[in-house]
Amino acid sequence: MQHPPPRHQGGGLIRGIPAILSVVSAFVIWELYVRVSGISPLMLPAPSRVLEQMVQNRALLWHNTLPTIQATLSGFALSVSVAFALSIVLDFMPRVRRALFPIFVVSQTLPLVAIAPLVVLWFGFDLTPKILLVALVTFFPMLVALVDGYASTDPEIEALLRSMGASRRVLFRTARLPSAMPYFFAGLRISITYAVVAAIFAEYVGARAGLGIVILNAKNSFRPDLVLAAVVISSVLTLVLFAATALLQRIVLRWRDVGEVR
Amino acid sequence: MTALAMQGVGITLGGTVVLDDITLHVAEGEFVSILGPSGAGKSTIFRLLTGALRHDRGMVTAGGRPLDQGEPGFAFMPQRDALMPWRRILDNLTLGLEVQGMARREARARVLPLLSAFGLAGFERHYPAQLSGGMRQRAALLRTLVQGRPVQLLDEPFGALDALTRTQMQAWFEDRWREARWTTLLVTHDVREAVALSDRIYVLSRRPARVIAEIPVPAPRPRLGRAPGPDAHALEAQLVDILLTQTGDQT
């Protein structure tokens, strides 16, 4: 089969130990370096100071994290729904696919640095431009994942369904869509990490609130400790969303995790 | 009564004549094999019968009526099992009935009583990846048979199995077939398999394919599970000779 062998469950904590150890030791080295060298916290704040700032400014950070979450999730939901709907159209109409695909590729080559200010200029400082930018960044990976996924359908399964008298619609529903699911989730995991970054960048360019604004203000007032505090939050946010998609994949693709009981 | 007949059927694909003149028939309750060298176009015949291809010349009739293009008349078992890895065994087995529009509950009720005869009882909730090659092949066969089509088209159904499992599966299959007498058209390049299972064997030439021999197999059944008689050996030798004349020119 084309699918990777089933992963065995359990032992996740044990397998995670090396990763946890390397992260912890990186922070320890960082902390030691700051203390020993006596470098100014305006240049490089110690992890302990970043943590302290996070606690002190928790109200501010929380207040600004919510808009980022909102922009990320709304933009991502928009892009996944549009990509899904469009992928179905493209799968049923190969000619439309050939006509539109180059446009989508071009949409990916647009530099976010140039596009973001324009989108903010056109749509204002509210949520709309953030949603649009997140959607723009995540749309193409999702679309490609789905289109590739449909194409990965086993031709023998398709031949079998046709011999049963299945229509193109039944073929899509029973074979092509389920075949695309592993690709869909791979795309989802990649896109969700882009989504958070895109939302923060969109805020950075122009917003009333959000982690991007925290970073912008902290930078302008020479507060690297606050910049890093916002970075920590955005990393945690990304990891949580990543874990959520992994969990969803576990549930939907149950069949890939089955062990062999022969 | 003739269940399936092909009369002077020919097909040209991309400028190559793949099937030149295929004339054959399968009577109701009969087991017929198509034997041919590799790449002779055996699978093309099935693609044509399952509606994946359209023939250019000749006529195909099912149950005496010309086969409507696009209307499925035959149940098809592809070379590899083609079980959907995301569907449990039971849901794979009901696939054909569901495509026909039968409600899931009714389709399951139709399939469940057949599981034990196919050695699948207790495995209906498993996924295909959890089953052995032989079990998967039996599941694929049951999925073919439950569709209730008048003719079963089997495309090298045991070809992907290891030798031991293949021998077991052939003997098991013969037992099932003797009980039910499904009208069957088998495509194979395995001479021994064709002789062991068939009532009649058609031998194809190399491409462009024509029927070059039609050979009845009179040996009494069951044939498998005991030493084959001298007749079977003679027949196998004869078929190998015919096939060798077909491949000889190319080498």
Strand order of the largest sheet of chain B: 5-4-1-2-10-9-3-8-7-6
Instruction: Please state the second-level CATH architecture of the largest domain in chain B.
Output: 3-Layer(aba) Sandwich
The fraction of residues assigned to DSSP E strands of chain A is under 5%
From the 3D coordinates, which CATH architecture of the largest domain in chain A would you assign?
Answer: Orthogonal Bundle
Q: What's the number of extended β-strand segments of chain A?
A: 0
Strand content of chain B: 25-35%
The average pLDDT of chain A is 89
Radius of gyration of chain B: 18 Å
What does this structure look like?
The complex is a heterodimer of chains A (262) and B (251). Chain A is mostly helical. Chain A folds into two domains: 10-39; 41-255, MetI-like (MetI-like fold, Orthogonal Bundle), CATH 1.10.3720. Helix content of chain A is 80%, strand content 0%. The relative contact order of chain A is 0.13. Chain B has 251 residues and is of the alpha/beta class. Chain B has two domains: 2-73 and 151-248, Rossmann fold (3-Layer(aba) Sandwich), CATH 3.40.50.300; 83-148, no CATH class. Chain B is built from eight helices and ten strands. Chain B has helices spanning 42-49, 89-93, 95-99, 104-111, 133-145, 163-180, 191-197, 230-248; strands at 2-13, 16-27, 31-35, 57-62, 65-66, 74-77, 151-155, 184-188, 200-204, 209-216. A ten-stranded mixed β-sheet of chain B has the order 5-4-1-2-10-9-3-8-7-6, sandwiched between helices. In chain B, helix 7 (191-197) packs across helix 8 (230-248). The longest helix of chain B has 19 residues, at 230-248. Chain B is globular. In chain B, 43% of the residues are buried. The chains are: A mainly alpha (262), B alpha/beta (251). Chain A binds chain B through residues 1, 3, 6, 154, 156-157, 159-166, 170, 174-175, 178, 181, 253, 255-256, 258-262, and chain B through 47, 50-52, 71-72, 74-76, 78-80, 82, 84-87, 95-96, 98-100, 126-127, 129-132, 147, 153.
